[in-house]
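A.,

Following up on our hallway conversation. Structure tokens first:
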């Protein structure tokens, strides 16, 4: 199965998979064609950026402007892996087609064994991702819902192997003038 996932992703494919919060849709960050497909699959507004997720934070370093600010490092140590998406300044490596031209990118490390296994086995260990649903509709919470909502639109819905999504979206936080800001309150209360 891992070989099949890699082949799909290397060929501009899109997969759906379980995370700790909701099901996700993802592709390799280097595939502009696949990112465009995600927007088409979801009927997503092009002004809404995707985020980057991995199984380990160090896999995301090259996508972020260094050094990562100290307040962000504290949150990373405390809440990663978990239901926190941090919006940080991006590096040159992060393509504008992922961030909708913004100078920041959201990053997250889900606390889910199946997702981590997928990341450990793919090139670069990072996925450009968003929730598995049509825009404005509730996200998929189970394998069956992922199949029902977007199964015919993606190249593969990866079985969850018994790992379930909790159903609450991640908290999205960032920094404005050095102060922490909550953009979306989700499963984790940070401040």
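Then the amino acids I'd put at each of the 191 positions:
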């Amino acid at each position: 199965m891992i070989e099949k996932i890699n082949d799909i992703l290397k060929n501009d494919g899109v997969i759906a998979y379980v995370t700790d919060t909701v099901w996700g849709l993802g592709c390799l960050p280097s595939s502009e064609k696949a990112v465009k497909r995600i927007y088409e699959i979801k009927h997503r507004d092009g002004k809404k950026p995707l985020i980057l997720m991995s199984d380990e934070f160090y896999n995301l370093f090259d996508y972020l402007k260094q050094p990562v600010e100290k307040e962000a490092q504290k949150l990373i140590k405390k809440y990663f892996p978990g239901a926190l998406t941090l919006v940080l300044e991006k590096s040159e490596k992060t393509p504008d087609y992922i961030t909708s031209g913004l100078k920041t990118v959201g990053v997250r490390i889900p606390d889910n064994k199946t997702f981590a296994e997928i990341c450990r086995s793919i090139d670069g260990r990072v996925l450009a991702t968003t929730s598995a649903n049509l825009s404005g509709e509730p996200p998929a919470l189970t394998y069956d819902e992922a199949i029902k909502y977007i199964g015919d639109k993606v190249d593969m819905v990866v079985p969850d192997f018994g790992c379930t999504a909790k159903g609450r979206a991640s908290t999205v936080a960032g920094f404005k003038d050095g102060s922490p800001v909550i953009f979306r309150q989700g499963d984790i209360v940070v401040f």
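The helical segments are 2-10, 32-42, 70-79, 96-99, 113-120, 143-150. Curious whether your intuition agrees with the design.

B.
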